[in-house]
Design goal:
The protein is mainly alpha-helical. The protein has two domains: about 1-185 and about 295-325, Rossmann fold; about 205-290, Tyrosyl-Transfer RNA Synthetase, CATH 1.10.240.10. Helix content is about 55%, strand content about 10%. It contains 13 helices and five strands. Strands 1-2-3 form a three-stranded parallel sheet, sandwiched between helices. It has a two-stranded parallel sheet with strand order 4-5. α8 (about 150-170) links the parallel β4 and β5 (about 175-180). α4 crosses α7 (about 125-135). The longest helix is centred in the C-terminal third of the chain and has 30 residues, at about 295-325. The structure holds tryptophan. Tryptophan binds near residues 7, 9, 42, 136 and 144.
Length: about 325
């Protein structure tokens, strides 16, 4: 039996990069019989960065709708909002007392974020990895699916578990990362990673017209200036996306057409846009339907928080005992 926990920032619905990179894996893991999964929408983490409070509820609803639409089964995993399980903050305080300050200040994300928001270097940015450790250890998770950018944070979570166990007795398993060979999808500019803040994404709920327009403007091989120039499908951004979203025969046709200069980039983009539209249609439809019924989302998240709290309370009972708190 493995216990899995992962967290995702509530930045609204997600894009095709998130879907292929993380979400698809969550869906797969949640369906495995011997995996108990917790998926946490981390609003307490989100408030360490500049944000608009009035937009937060909707971001949570959109994210939850997209996750459900992607096939995450809320009956097989606990999908919940971090701030609805107050034990996260309680454990974070306790773990802070076994976290070396020096390590926190050396986290590369802390340094990056401090540079990005020099006017708001709050202590929460520094203690962010402690809250993340609390998310994981609260459920005594054994496995944590993370992207490369979170590996350092997970290493620290392991050290925090080790230190707590060393000081107070065996309490937490040391969580192991799950690295997936998920593709890194670049943004439509073909250069930077796909990211909402860079404005180079295709959302899974994007409407067909917007998809056609965005793909038409996507990056193509700069060495293929004319249609009569042979291209390089292995390194071409549009050909790469065909691999993920087009049926094999369409992909083969456009890779071949690119290599032999018989099909142009414009043709390839048109076909890709139609493939994407078809690929995303069921998810889009389902998500829009769910977003139109926020009361269903509320129920799902409430049930998820209830499940999470049951486990969280049990861990906290043990933690309090280990700490010698008065009862
Ligand atoms: N910090 C993670 C990110 O930005 C999100 C996160 C919060 C997380 N708590 C977590 C990921 C616990 C894995 C486990 O992507």
């Amino acid at each position: 039996m493995e216990t899995v926990l992962s967290g995702i920032q509530p930045s609204g619905g997600f894009h095709i990069g998130n879907y292929l990179g993380a979400v698809q894996n969550w869906v797969r893991m949640a369906a495995l019989p011997d995996y108990r999964c917790y998926f946490c929408i981390v609003d307490l983490h989100a408030i360490t960065q500049n944000y608009e409070p009035s937009a937060m509820p909707n971001r949570v609803v959109e994210l939850c709708a997209d996750l459900l639409a992607a096939g995450l089964d809320p009956n097989r995993s606990a999908l919940f909002v971090q701030s609805q399980v107050p034990e996260h903050t309680e454990l974070a305080w306790i773990l802070a007392t076994v976290t070396p300050y020096g390590e926190l200040s050396r986290m590369t994300q802390f340094k990056d974020k401090s540079e990005r928001q020099p006017e708001n270097i709050n202590a929460g940015l520094l203690t962010y990895p402690i809250l993340m450790a609390a998310d994981i250890l609260l459920y005594r998770a054994t496995r944590v699916p993370v992207g490369m950018d979170q590996v350092q944070h997970l290493e620290l979570a392991r050290e925090i578990a080790r230190r707590f166990n060393g000081r107070f007795g065996d309490t937490f398993p040391e969580p192991l990362p799950i690295h997936t060979q998920a593709p890194k999808i670049l943004g439509l500019d073909g250069k930077q990673k796909m990211s909402k803040s860079l404005g180079n994404t295709i959302e899974v709920t994007e409407n067909p017209e917007a998809i056609r327009k965005k793909i038409a403007g996507a990056y193509t091989d700069e060495t293929r200036l004319r249609k009569t120039d042979p291209g390089h499908p292995e390194s071409c951004y549009v050909c790469g996306l065909h691999n993920y979203f087009s049926p094999p025969d369409v992909t083969a046709r456009h890779h071949e057409g690119c290599r032999t200069a018989t099909l142009g980039c414009v043709d390839s983009k048109r076909a890709l846009a139609e493939s994407l539209i078809q690929y995303l249609a069921p998810m889009r439809e389902r998500s829009l339907e769910l977003r139109a019924h926020p009361e269903q989302i509320r129920e799902t998240l409430a049930a998820g928080a209830e499940t999470a709290r049951r486990a969280a309370r049990e861990t906290m009972g043990l933690v309090r005992e280990r700490l010698g708190f008065y009862r």
